[in-house]
Amino acid sequence: MTHPTSPDAVILDYNGVIGLQPARTHWLRLARTSSWPEDDLTGFQQAFWHARDLYDAGQLSDLAYWARVLGAHPGPRLLRKLRAADTAMWTETDTSVLAVLHRAHATRLRMVLLSNAPAHLATVLDTHDWRHLMTQALYSARLQVCKPDPAAYQHALQATGVSDPRRVLFVDDRTDNCRAATRLGLRTLHYTGSADALREALALAA
């Protein structure tokens, strides 16, 4: 029997919840691949993020995005290396979170992934073992819209099949994304690294 406080569905972010945040070694590998000065990692990260929303929203191709980061068009070989290093940064997962999600899946809880991710990363994530836990996986590049745009949440809510947003839990590591979900009436969990907090929010027994 479903606990009265348990949600009917959950919408999950990927990076920072299921996926681990990139380590410094990942950033250094990508910066070196880009031939960026090693003593200016902060500058590289600023360039990386400057056009990332457009890239995640599917409005820039791989080539156009990396041309903006580097200030020049990379050749085909370098572009392949950049894309591979970029992808590698986002594919390590948190086993403790996945353990909670496996338990939730066993209860037949509907789970929808809502991730800001470019097209190539979305394709890779769809091949991972944890993907079968999701009723549906929605990526910004395919939706052509990024969180915290309300349209992204509406797509995800529709994918849950639950009409009342108060019966849906939204989980994200970014406060702006959680605030946007709250404005639309969803329950929210600002995830800060505690798998136990996620388990409790899903009303799963310890």
- What about the largest sheet? 5 strands, parallel
Shape: elongated
From N to C, what is the helix and strand string? EHHHHHHEHEHHEHEH
The beta-strand count equals: 5
For the record, give the distance between the C-alpha atoms at the N and C termini, rounded to a whole number: 16 Å
Q: Kindly estimate the percentage of residues that lie in beta strands according to DSSP.
A: 5-15%
What is the count of helical runs? 11
Runs with pLDDT <50, length 5+?
A: none
Structural class: alpha/beta
Oligomer: single chain
Percent helix, as a range, is: 40-55%
Topology:
Layout (H helix, E strand, L loop, with lengths): L8 E4 L11 H10 L7 H10 L1 H5 L5 H9 L5 H14 L5 H12 L3 E6 L3 H7 L10 E4 H4 L6 H11 L7 E5 L2 H9 L3 E4 L4 H7 L5
Parallel strand pairs: 1-2, 1-4, 2-3, 4-5
Helix pairs in contact: 1-5, 2-4, 6-11
Describe this structure in words.
This protein has 206 residues and is an alpha/beta fold. The protein is built from 11 helices and 5 strands. It has a 5-stranded parallel β-sheet, sandwiched between helices. α7 links the parallel β2 and β3. α1 packs antiparallel against α5, α2 packs antiparallel against α4 and α6 runs parallel beside α11. The two termini are 16 Å apart.
